[in-house]
């Protein structure tokens, strides 16, 4: 039985970092917005993630995804100030840069090539030979094949970013409904006009699907093919008053991020065969911890704090889906951000808000549209 009924201008399904970033930008633009979250805000991959703003470290070719990532990364310093001012919560932007360590000759060649096209694209990327790297990082154990230093790839504390976005949106009038899962869409003549939850009907002029790894399942209710699937990532936190390095160190299959609160984040596996299982397991954490200790031996003495696991929203071509849904009026998508939800949250919020307030999006959305599936 339906208990309550709400009306909102825009309803966002999913209260992770993407949903909250959209809520913030829409609320800032004066749009009445409601966020529906089946669990608690940011409790899925937003919480498990590393918080890396790896616009250069995560991108292997010059393409629209690289441009989108660079633009999003550039928004963070101002976003941090705005959110701090509105909410008093600091996302803890950490600006020491990232070392991407080469693990073999082939990796070294690929990274040198990356240095060249990223530099040509106007980004800073500095090569360190093994000896120089040891001078900078101290106790790396195994010999490396050099490293690419990306001084402008930063990181934030993702749970803080989420809190700051949600609190600021609330201050601007956004409404958040937690522990409230959608059961189905409400439709009128084929257009989406809201959603039904277990105990309410929420009517909305438009609905944005931003439900991370669950987006494909939800879209399927409409017979809509949205190929977004879970890619599990396991990681863990170590306690430390003084992390062994101020830099993020990133190599094949393992990265290490010192956090401002003294903790050290070690990530992450990439598993496609775990379905929706979000439990950390011993085998993956054992492999990851041995890689981390091999890279930075002093990590082995730090107390273990928290195992983490989350489901990244993967897509077949690694690109997110952003924008309207062809053939379904009232429905928009902002999902499939795979390894880069935190990094792309700022630009996603901005682009979707631009789209919904009648402005021309500041980035061409064509490469991220759902219609690209028809051309592939
Ligand atoms: N952005 C890093 C990861 O997803 O593991």
Q: How would you explain this protein's 3D organization?
A:
It is a single chain. The chain has 376 residues and is α/β, with parallel strands linked by helices. The chain folds into two domains: 5-53 and 160-228 and 317-375, FAD/NAD(P)-binding domain (3-Layer(bba) Sandwich), CATH 3.50.50; 94-153 and 232-311, D-Amino Acid Oxidase, subunit A, domain 2 (D-Amino Acid Oxidase, Chain A, domain 2, 2-Layer Sandwich), CATH 3.30.9.10. The chain is 31% helix and 27% strand. The chain has helices spanning 17-28, 45-48, 64-87, 105-120, 130-137, 158-171, 215-220, 282-295, 341-356, 372-375; strands at residues 4-13, 33-36, 52-53, 98-101, 126-128, 147-150, 154-155, 175-177, 182-188, 191-197, 200-209, 228-238, 248-251, 254-258, 264-267, 304-315, 321-324, 331-335. The strands form three sheets. Strands 1, 2, 8, 9, 10, 11, 17 and 18 form an eight-stranded mixed β-sheet that branches. α1 links the parallel β1 (4-13) and β2. α3 (64-87) packs across α9. The longest helix is centred in the N-terminal third of the chain and has 24 residues, at 64-87. The protein is globular, with a radius of gyration of 21 Å. The model has no long low-confidence stretch (mean pLDDT 95). Glycine binds next to loops. Glycine is lined by residues 50, 52, 54, 233, 267-268, 312, 339-340. One of its GO terms (biological process) is thiamine diphosphate biosynthetic process. It catalyses: glycine + O2 + H2O = glyoxylate + H2O2 + NH4(+).
Keywords:
FAD/NAD(P)-binding domain; 10 helices; 8-stranded mixed β-sheet; D-Amino Acid Oxidase, Chain A, domain 2; 376 residues; binds glycine; single chain; alpha/beta; 2 domains
């Amino acid at each position: 039985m339906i208990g309550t009924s709400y009306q909102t201008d825009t309803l966002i399904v999913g209260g992770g970092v993407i949903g909250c970033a959209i809520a913030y930008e829409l609320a800032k633009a004066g749009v009445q917005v409601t966020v529906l979250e089946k669990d608690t805000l940011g409790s899925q991959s937003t919480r498990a993630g590393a918080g890396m703003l790896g616009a250069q470290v995560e991108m292997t070719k010059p393409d629209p995804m690289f441009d989108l990532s660079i633009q999003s990364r550039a928004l963070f310093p101002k976003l941090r100030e705005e959110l701090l001012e509105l909410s008093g919560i600091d996302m803890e932007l950490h600006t020491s840069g990232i070392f991407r360590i080469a693990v073999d000759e082939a990796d070294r060649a690929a990274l040198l090539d990356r240095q060249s096209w990223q530099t040509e694209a106007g980004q800073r990327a500095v090569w360190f030979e093994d000896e120089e790297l040891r001078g900078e990082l101290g106790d790396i154990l195994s010999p490396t094949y050099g490293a690419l230093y990306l001084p402008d790839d930063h990181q934030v504390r993702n749970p803080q970013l989420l809190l700051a976005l949600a609190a600021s949106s609330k201050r601007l009038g956004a409404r958040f409904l937690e522990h409230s899962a959608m059961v189905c869409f409400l439709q009128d003549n084929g257009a989406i006009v809201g959603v039904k939850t277990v105990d309410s009907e929420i009517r909305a002029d438009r609905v944005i699907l931003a439900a991370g790894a669950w987006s494909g399942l939800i879209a399927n209710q409409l017979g809509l093919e949205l190929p977004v699937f879970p890619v599990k990532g396991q990681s863990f936190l170590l306690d430390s008053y003084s992390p062994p390095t101020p830099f993020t160190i990133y190599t094949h299959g393992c990265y290490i991020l010192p956090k401002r609160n003294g903790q050290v984040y070690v990530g992450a596996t990439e598993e496609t065969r775990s379905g929706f299982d979000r439990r950390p397991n011993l085998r993956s954490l054992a492999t990851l911890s041995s890689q981390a200790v091999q890279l930075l031996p002093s990590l082995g003495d730090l107390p273990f704090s928290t195992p983490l696991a989350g489901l990244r929203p993967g897509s077949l071509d690694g690109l997110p889906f952003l924008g309207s849904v062809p053939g379904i009026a009232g429905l928009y998508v902002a999902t499939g951000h795979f390894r880069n939800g935190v990094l792309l949250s700022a630009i996603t919020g901005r682009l979707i808000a631009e789209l919904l307030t009648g402005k021309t999006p500041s980035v061409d959305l064509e490469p991220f549209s759902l219609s690209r599936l028809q051309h592939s």
